[in-house]
Structure formats: C-alpha cells, structure tokens
C-alpha cells in the first residue's frame, strides 16, 4: 500500500467550503504538505469562507501557510431554500474551469454540505476520482441525503466509526475502497495540550471567567423545518438568559433560516447582553480549548456530539439535527425542545459535570492512515466505480414463450388417507390437482410421490406452466416473508418432539407432533381400535372394502366413543404443546391451523395454550384456515416466495 501505480506524485485537490469542514480537512492538508515527495497539494476555497458576515474564514487557511490556488465566490445571499439551490448551481457553473486548470488526480471532499455536493458532482462528471471524508454517518436532516449522495459519487471513502463503515457497505460501496480511519480532527484534539488555555478563555469571555463556569452555544437552522428551528433557538436564548452564566455564542452557519436566527439574536439583545459574547468565528485551535474547559456546550452542531466527547465536556443536543449520530455518555438529548423550562432543566442537569473522555470518532491516528490509503490508490485502475450489490436471481429472457408462461410450483400434501400433488400458479390458483390413496409402506409412498410429481410436471408443459420448484411442509412468516432456513428445512413443525417416550414417527424419532396428530397417526390409531372392534358405535357403518381412516375416528368420537375421543384429545394436546413451544420461541401474533383435522383440534389447542403457555403469549389468536386447499397453497408458497425474491 505504499505507492500508487504511477511513477509520479499524486496531485491532490482539497476543496473546503466553511469553518467546520476545514477543521477536519486541515490535518490531512498538513500531512499531504509534509510529504512533497509523494503529493502535490492544490487548495480550492469556496462557500461561506469568503463571506464577511461569516468571518472571512479563508484567512485562517492563509494563516496556516497554505497557498490557496482558487477562490470561488459561490454563495447566493438570501439564506433561504432557493438561495441554497442557486448557490449549488453557481458552484457548478464555476467549478469546471477550475478543475480543467488544476487537473487533479484526486479530489478530497468532506461531509454533507450543499457546497460539497456541487464539488463532488463536478468532479464526478469530469472523471476525477473523489475521496469522501465522513461518509456513512447519520444525523437527522437534509444533510443525510446530501452526505449519501456524495457517497454515491465518490470512488473512495474515509469513515470515522465502525457503524459508518457498515452503513457504507450496506449502501453497496466496495469494501476495498473504504478506510476506517477515525476523524482527522481527533488527531489534533487528542494532542491538544495548550497549557495557556486561561488566556484563550479571557480573550473570548472576559477576565473574570473561570474554567468550567461558562457555556459554549452553537445552533444552526434545520432546513427541513425552519420555522420550528427558529422557535427552538428563541427558547434556547431565553433559557440561557435565565440560567445566568457567561456564554460564548457563535453565529449559525449559512443554511436556509440563518438570517432569521440572527434576527432572533438581535431581538433578544444578545450582542449587547453582559452575559453573552457573540462571535462569527473562533479559530479551531482556540475553539478546542474553549469547549474542553467549558461547563457545558449547548446547541445542535455536529461538533457537540462528535468532537466535544474527546474532552468529556457535558453537551446538550437540541432537536433532531444530530439525532442519528453516535454519541458518548456526555450528550443529553432534548429531542422536543419545545419549552424554555425543558431546556433550562437540561442546563441544570448538565452544567459543570465531567464525563469520561470518548474516542468513538477517533484515536488520534487518522491522518497517517489516510496518507497511506492515498498512496495505495492506483490511477491505472478503471475510473468507473463498481457497486457491490447483493446477489439477485437472474431474470429470465423476455422472449414470447417466457412472457406467456405461468410461473408455478408443484405442491405436495402427504395426507393420512390420500397423497395430493397440485400445480399452483403465482396467483394462488390450483391449475390441476392429482390425488392417490396413500400406500401402506414408506417405499411405496416415496415411489408414488415421485410418479405423481413427474406426471404433474409433464402436464405443466402442456398447460404452459413453468415449474419453479416443489414444496412440502409448514411455514413460519416473519415480516411478511417465509423463513426458509440455511438448508431450506425451516418450519418442520410436525417434527417438534413433545414426548420423549411417544409413538414412533416416520422421521425415525419418537414423540413428534406428527406421530400423534397427523392424519396418518390418527389412521393408525383408528385401525387399532377397529381391529379390536372398539371403533364402530351405534350410528356408524363401514363397507368391507372401505379403508379405515382419521375421519372414522372423528365420527366415532362425535357419536360417543370415549376411546376415540381420548385419542383425539391426546393428539390435540400434542399439537397444542408443539404450538406452545413455537409461541415461546417465535412469539407470533397468529397461529393458523389448516387441513381437515384443524377444526377438531382448534379448541383443544386453545385449552393447552391457556394451561401451559406463559401469560405473555396466551393472547395469541389461533384460527382455522378458510382456504379450500391450504396445505397445497402453503406448500406452493414456499417455492414461489423464495424463487421470485432477492436472495439474502
């Protein structure tokens, strides 16, 4: 990873738009400048850096001894939504000439500002590789959309947290082009050891202010709800006035709504209030010392939830602008900052506390990692970025035969008396059904099932049905999707064991639900009673050639046969115990019993749930399916659901 695939220096262009992004980009710029044998650095300044009302912050870039190659005046004043859009448009008009002149190999873009989106869009359309800093994070405003849009344009990504890295991977970005480095500003934060912090505090807040006895306030408009954010700012100022502590308040950024927020400051007399110091800009090195030794920071700036955690300074995060950010325990959220009293209570709770220092966003070694990552970029690789989408089932070609085909499944129902196979369409229509008497032996059953499936598949061709698979079994539905399991054997509910010494099951085990409650199990018990002349009671008759089955057992129970009723009660209890196990494992909201035996079991199952299940799951609904062929439709759905959705 030490050298890119070119035998020349890597020409890196850094575009900075405002005071906030410069604090993250400056450490990288210093690192690039310190290795002239590997890099050439071009600096483009645009956005609010060049506006007097926002402190003309381009000067701090000059004070850091960086040569500014280009200054672009891109802000259309107005501080409303339209002005933001026009500013993006103006930047898009001006940037192409700059990029044509500089011809950078890599454009470094930070964060989620509208100016940064214009830079990334221009670079992408001009075939310049983009390195995006702080992608994958979540805040809670329009910034999220802008940040993720830049991610889609960027070729390489430097993220600050493990969660952000996972978000980028989830967004189908190439893992090999993602660097988990930490936040570059933490390289400076964690090494900040300015012992003369008192002179900085006195410079900005007055000679009579002590450490941990003042507040830093920084609040920006929320562009998706400007009216509410202005009201919240007014309440914040009222709370700060009532709290009666010296407060350093910074002017908001240039987003839509900032002009109205400044009007609120002037309406409240903040600029002339003895407890307030209102400023447009504080150099980052000094700002670090101010928040490190503050009694509290309040507002909705990302700085509060990200950088300030490095010092353990208490933070009050107001509203939703940063609600999705990862935070340390030093942050107290006031999501609905709708009353002065609520904000005032938060100030009383937080002011003067000291929390453990947090390193969620970095360990102080981000810049060396980023420089190493830059050196590894091979400019000979194809420029077109690739997305790592999850695998998707291949689409069938759109010839006329495929268009006219009906996507279908073969459904198999292994009944006690009969075996059934059906062709079921995607719409849940039983196109054709085949029924055969159930043979006596296992080998004969398997042979007959295969024969019936082959016959049905051949018939499907004539019916223009495309068979996607064969389905057998019960099902569990979670979040509107069937659970298939790692080897497609999920929901073998009939083989839940409910007794260690129960009857033999066809699976080779003992005491399965199926060994008690299936049609074949009831047929077995009915034959035992019949062989002992204990099945038939008054009102029943059977022909000599008639096969004894589960329905005879049910009929006998209805006519007063106590032994038949006991067998059904035992079978229903076994089924009920299996359902209780499922309730304790899956906690479903609905249990659907299907088949000819369902109506005879439903009340017994409900009784078992009332007697055996935990109280928290006893309210589950247990119903009988009203579908005509529920077993066949359920078996078919297992195939149709899986083969026509994305593979997870």
From TrEMBL:
Q: Which PROSITE patterns does the annotation name?
A: ROK
SUPFAM superfamilies, from UniProt?
Actin-like ATPase domain, UDP-Glycosyltransferase/glycogen phosphorylase
- Give all residue intervals belonging to the UDP-N-acetylglucosamine 2-epimerase domain: 38-375
Gene Ontology process terms (BP): UDP-N-acetylglucosamine metabolic process
- The UniProt annotation places Zn(2+) binding at 495, 505, 507, 512
InterPro entries reported for this sequence: ATPase_NBD, ROK, ROK_cs, UDP-GlcNAc_Epase, UDP_GlcNAc_Epimerase_2_dom
Q: Which GO terms describe its molecular function?
A: hydrolase activity, hydrolyzing O-glycosyl compounds; N-acylmannosamine kinase activity; UDP-N-acetylglucosamine 2-epimerase activity
Q: Can you name this protein?
A: Glucosamine (UDP-N-acetyl)-2-epimerase/N-acetylmannosamine kinase
What organism, scientifically named, is this protein from?
A: Vombatus ursinus (Common wombat)
């Amino acid at each position: 990873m030490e050298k890119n695939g070119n035998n020349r220096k890597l020409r890196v262009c850094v575009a900075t738009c405002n005071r906030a992004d410069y604090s993250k980009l400056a450490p990288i710029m210093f690192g690039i400048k310190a290795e002239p044998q590997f890099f050439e650095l071009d600096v483009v300044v645009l956005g609010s850096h060049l506006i007097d009302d926002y402190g003309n912050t381009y000067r701090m870039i000059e004070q850091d001894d960086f040569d500014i190659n280009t200054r672009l005046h891109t802000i259309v004043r107005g501080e409303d939504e339209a002005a933001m859009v026009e500013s993006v448009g103006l930047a898009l008009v001006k940037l192409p000439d700059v990029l044509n002149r500089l011809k950078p190999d890599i454009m470094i873009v930070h964060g989620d500002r509208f100016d940064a989106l214009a830079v990334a869009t221009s670079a992408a359309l001009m075939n310049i590789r983009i390195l995006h800093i702080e992608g994958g994070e979540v805040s809670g405003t329009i910034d999220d959309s802008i940040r993720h849009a830049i991610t889609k344009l960027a070729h390489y990504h430097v993220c600050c947290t493990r969660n952000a890295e996972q978000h980028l991977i989830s967004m189908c970005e190439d893992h090999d082009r993602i660097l988990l480095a930490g936040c570059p500003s933490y390289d400076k934060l964690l090494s900040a050891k300015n012992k003369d912090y008192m002179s900085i505090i006195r410079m900005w807040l007055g000679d009579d202010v002590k450490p941990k006895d003042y507040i830093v306030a920084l609040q920006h408009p929320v562009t998706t709800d400007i009216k509410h954010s202005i009201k919240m700012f007014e309440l914040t100022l009222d709370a700060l006035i009532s709290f009666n502590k010296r407060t350093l308040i910074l002017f908001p950024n240039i987003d839509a709504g900032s002009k109205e927020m400044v009007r609120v400051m002037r309406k409240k007399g903040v600029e002339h209030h003895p407890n307030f110091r209102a400023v447009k800009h504080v150099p980052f090195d000094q700002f670090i010392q101010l928040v490190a030794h503050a009694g509290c920071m309040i507002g909705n700036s990302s700085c509060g939830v990200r950088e300030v955690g490095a010092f353990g300074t208490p933070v009050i995060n107001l509203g939703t602008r940063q609600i999705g950010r990862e935070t340390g325990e030093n942050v107290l959220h006031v999501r609905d900052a709708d009353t002065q009293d609520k904000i005032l209570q938060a100030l009383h709770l937080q002011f003067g506390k000291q929390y453990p220092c947090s390193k969620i966003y970095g360990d102080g070694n981000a810049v060396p990692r980023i420089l190493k990552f830059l050196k590894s970029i091979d400019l000979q690789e194809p420029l077109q970025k690739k997305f790592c989408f999850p695998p998707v089932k291949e689409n069938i070609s759109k010839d006329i035969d495929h268009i006219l085909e009906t996507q279908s499944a073969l459904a198999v129902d292994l009944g006690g008396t009969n075996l059934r196979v059906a062709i079921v369409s995607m719409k849940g229509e039983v196109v054709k059904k085949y029924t055969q008497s159930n043979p006596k032996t296992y080998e004969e059953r398997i042979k007959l099932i295969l024969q019936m499936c082959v016959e049905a598949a051949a018939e499907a061709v004539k019916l223009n049905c495309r068979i996607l698979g064969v389905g057998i079994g019960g099902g569990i539905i979670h979040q509107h999707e069937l659970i298939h399991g790692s080897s497609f054997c999920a929901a073998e509910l009939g083989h839940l064991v409910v007794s260690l010494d129960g009857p033999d099951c066809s699976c080779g085990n003992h005491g399965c639900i199926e060994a008690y409650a299936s049609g074949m199990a009831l047929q077995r018990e009915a034959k035992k009673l019949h062989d002992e002349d204990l099945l038939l009671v008054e009102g029943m008759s059977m022909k000599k050639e008639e096969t004894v089955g589960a329905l005879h057992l049910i009929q006998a129970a209805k006519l007063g046969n106590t032994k038949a009723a006991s067998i059904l009660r035992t079978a229903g209890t076994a089924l009920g115990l299996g359902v209780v196990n499922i309730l304790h494992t899956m906690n479903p909201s609905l249990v659907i019993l299907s088949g000819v035996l369902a109506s005879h079991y439903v009340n017994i199952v409900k009784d078992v749930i009332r007697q055996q299940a935990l109280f928290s799951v006893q309210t589950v609904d247990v119903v009988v399916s009203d579908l005509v062929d529920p077993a066949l439709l359920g078996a078919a759905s297992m195939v149709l659901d899986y083969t026509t959705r994305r593979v997870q």
